[in-house]
C-alpha cells in the first residue's frame, strides 16, 4: 500500500480529529477504529482489505465504457432526474450538488452550485466516472450501493484523503425483486454541512421511485403467470415460473411440494414472492437468467436434489420476456431440454462457505466464529445475532442475505424472522396443536418458533 502522507484536516473539519486520526492509523495497517461509526469501519475494511483502494487516490477513475442495464430501469433514471431537480432548489443555495449514478457507481448526471461543480470536476466527481467503493473508496455514492438505507459520509470518513473536505449523503434505489441496486441519488457539499433533513429527503425519494419498480414487478408477475398457463396447456410435467432472483411466482401442486412452497397459489405480493427452500435451485435459476440475458434463444437444464427424493430431479429452464426484457423462466420438472448447466466450477457463481460473521458493538466490529452464533433474528432490515458474547447487531443487513451466505454452513431458516444454527439446538418442544419450538443452547435458552411452512424442512434436518 502506498505511504500515506500526513495532512492535517482543513479548519472546517477540525471537529473530526478523532476520525481523522483513526483513518491515519487504519490506512497505515493498524486495526484500532475507536471513535469510528460501525458502518464506516466496515466500509474501510472493504476498501483496505478487499478492494485495496489506495487512500492517496486523488480522483475517480473513468467508468467502464459500456455498462448494460435493463431497459425498464431507464424510467428510474428519469424519475430520479425529476426528483433531483427539486432537491437542487434546496441544496444549491448551500453550495450543494446533486448526482445520479447507475447501479455500478457510474455517474450519469449532475446538477447544483456551479462553484462546487468546478471543485468536484477536479476529483472527477462528474459524469462518466466511477464512484463505486471498489474504485474510489468510502463515499456517499459507492457506500450507498452497499447499504439498504441512506448513508452519510462526513469529511475524514471518506477512505481517500483527497475527499476529506467533502460531506456526501446518498441512497440506493433497489430492484424490488432482486434487491440489487439500480441507481443512487447523492447530495454533496464541499467544506460545508448538509441540512439535517437530508436523510429523510433521500429516503422519501427512494420510496417514491421504488413504487415504479413495484408496479413493474406486478406487471412482470402477471406475465409470468400467463406464461405458466400457456406452458400448462402444452405439458403435463410439473411446472413453476420464477423471477430473476429465483423466487417463485406460481407453481403447480407437484412443483410446489418439490420446492417446499404452496402449490397453485400465486405469490401474495409482487415484491415478496415464494422462496424455495433449495439454495441449489435458486442458484440454477439465477444462472439461467444470466445466460438468457446474453442469448434470448437460450434454454438449459440441470439436476437438483429436492426435499422428497433421494435421487436428483431433472429441471429445465425456458426464458420469459416482456417488452424485450427478461422477467424470469418457466421451469419444467422431470424434463431435460437445452444446454446443460455446469454443476460446479467457475461458470456458476457459487459463494464460498464463510468462516466468520461480522457483528457490531458500539463503535467496534466483532469477528465471530460460526459456532459462536446460536441464531439470527430480523428486526426490519436489521439482523440481531444471539452469540456467546451476548446480543450483537449483524454487519450485513437483511435476513435473506444472511440465509444465503450461511445456507451451506449448518444454518437453517425456520421462520420468516429466524435463522438458527442447527448445532446449537438443545431441545425441540411440540405444542398441543402441533406447533414446534426450538430450545437453543444460548444463555437464555431462547425458544425459537418454527413456522408451519418450515416445519417439514426442520424435521428432515434434525431427523425427527
From TrEMBL:
Keyword Cytoplasm in annotation: no
InterPro entries: GAF-like_dom_sf, LytR-like, LytTR_DNA-bd_dom
Keywords: DNA-binding
Pfam families the UniProt entry points to: LytTR
Domain of life: Bacteria
Any one GO MF annotation of this record: DNA binding
Residue span(s) of domain HTH LytTR-type: 357-464
SMART domains: LytTR
Keyword DNA-binding carried by entry: yes
PANTHER family assigned to the protein according to its UniProt record, in alphabetical order: STAGE 0 SPORULATION PROTEIN A HOMOLOG, TRANSCRIPTIONAL REGULATOR-RELATED
Protein name, per record: LytTR family transcriptional regulator DNA-binding domain-containing protein
